[in-house]
Amino acid sequence: MSRPSVYKEFGSRAGLGRALVTSETQEFFARLADILYPGLPDTQASLEAAILHLLLQTDEHPLLRAVVEAAREGSDSLLPYLTARADPVFDTSQALLRDWLSERCPLQEAQIIEDAADITVRMTISHLILPGRPPHHTARRSAAAVAVAKLLDRPRHPASG
């Protein structure tokens, strides 16, 4: 494919990067959704299983591995696609978790569900970029899963019905 054809289709290098991330992550998130739905009876255990899957896939999924390895080596050329930009990986992760948590905890406040999804995604990405322990150990003791479980156990405010 010629350079003009690529730019005509994607607009810019950033557009090509977004298209690549979108394409590669669709299959990844489909597998993650399969873990969450219907999932284990315990919400925290389901989150731990999903986090473990994500941590293990980092080594097997070419795009994730490239992004994470570049970030660990000090290059942030691909990292924004996982972290700061409102792009496919971050938004899709949050939407998947928000929808799943809403189904799991239908009586919980929407803001708590939103916070729980946000905490889980941010902490899991942090574990990817700055690993400290083997994936199976990290997932089992995941601060994200514990924090989410605690958030979801909070009672609703009387004013919110």
UniProtKB/TrEMBL annotation:
HTH-type transcriptional regulator AlkX C-terminal Actinobacteria domain residues: 42-146
Gene3D superfamilies from the UniProt entry: Tetracycline Repressor, domain 2 (1.10.357.10)
Highest taxon above the source species: Bacteria
Name of the protein: AcrR family transcriptional regulator
